[in-house]
């Protein structure tokens, strides 16, 4: 939960506030309201005006302690702010804002105490509730203040000394690097001459196509018409041809040859 921003008018004190006085005042500020709350709870049963008077006096001291805590916190914050990291600066700003609310809240608690002293029970109960809320805010503020010291090193002398030494070492390192760059000559990069590219002539290669061999198809009719060619190939007759030759052969054998007149022998 983020509290609304409150900016108080700047007040210039006639004296300088000592550094590292803020923790002392804070412990005193936290203790007073706790004692006042215990007295008020006891006085609900005792109902003594003297107890009410003591609690009123302690509330006045609480307002003064809250004022002192606010100004001592400003002094310590200004002293430690330059050496803080970004996260610590954000936490310090939130701590200051809550401290401003506590300063104003102390006056509100004192006002409700005056109303409760009239004897009105409703105002008395409301005053107790406001006092409890004020005590809770003080505990929260004390927790955040401890985180600023133990986690972020706020106003810790040893941390400040180490930060100063680290800052000096960084400056010395930057100066040494700058001098080293000035004194070191720039490296000479040898230039490599590129060999000229040689042209490679590629002779054209002619590819001659080999003619495909001609294939002669021998049909059975051609073989039958020229069975006795000089190629020396003997033609084997097919079964049909054999049967035809067998049928024709007997007919030719039975045929009677009649000689002609010229061929007949002369009579003796």
Describe the model.
The chain has 268 residues and is an all-alpha fold. It has a domain at 22-155. Helix content is 62%, strand content 0%. It has helices at 22-46, 49-80, 86-116, 121-150, 157-183, 220-225, 239-254. The termini are far apart.
What tags apply to this protein structure?
268 residues, mainly alpha, 62% helix
Instruction: Estimate the strand proportion.
Output: under 5%
Please report the total strand number as a whole number: 0
The helicity comes to: 55-70%
- Class by SSE composition: mainly alpha
Biggest sheet statistics: none
What is the gyration radius calculated from CA atoms? 64 Å
Counted by DSSP, the helix tally is 7
Name the shape in a single word.
Answer: elongated
Low-confidence stretches: 217-235, 248-258
The pLDDT mean sits at 75
Distance between the termini: 172 Å
Taken in chain order, the helices and strands follow as HHHHHHH
Give the helices and strands, then pairings:
Elements: H1 22-46, H2 49-80, H3 86-116, H4 121-150, H5 157-183, H6 220-225, H7 239-254
Helix pairs in contact: 1-2, 1-4, 2-3, 3-4
Quick synopsis:
This protein has seven helices and no strands. With 268 residues, it is mainly alpha-helical.
């Amino acid at each position: 939960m983020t509290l609304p921003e409150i900016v108080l008018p700047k007040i210039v004190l006639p004296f300088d506030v000592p550094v590292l006085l803020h923790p002392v005042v804070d412990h005193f500020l936290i203790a007073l309201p706790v004692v006042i709350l215990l007295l008020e709870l006891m006085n609900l049963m005792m109902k003594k005006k003297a107890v009410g008077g003591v609690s009123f006096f302690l509330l006045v001291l609480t307002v003064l302690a809250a004022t002192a805590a606010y100004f001592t916190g400003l002094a310590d914050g200004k002293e430690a702010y330059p050496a803080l990291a970004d996260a610590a600066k954000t936490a310090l700003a939130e701590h200051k804002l809550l401290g401003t609310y506590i300063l104003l809240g102390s006056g509100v608690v004192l006002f409700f105490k005056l109303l409760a002293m009239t004897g009105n029970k409703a105002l008395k109960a409301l005053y107790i509730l406001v006092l409890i809320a004020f005590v809770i805010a003080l505990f929260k503020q004390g927790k955040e203040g401890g985180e600023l010291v133990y986690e972020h090193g706020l106003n810790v002398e040893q941390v400040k000394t180490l930060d100063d030494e680290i800052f000096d070492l960084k400056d010395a390192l930057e100066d040494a690097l700058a001098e080293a760059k000035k004194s070191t000559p720039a490296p000479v990069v040898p230039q490599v001459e590129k060999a000229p590219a040689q042209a490679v002539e590629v002779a054209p290669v002619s590819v001659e196509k080999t003619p495909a061999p001609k294939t002669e198809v021998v049909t059975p009719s051609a073989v039958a018409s020229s069975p006795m060619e000089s190629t020396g190939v003997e033609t084997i007759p097919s079964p049909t041809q054999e049967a035809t030759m067998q049928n024709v052969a007997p007919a030719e054998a039975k045929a009677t040859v009649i000689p002609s007149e010229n061929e007949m022998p002369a009579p003796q």
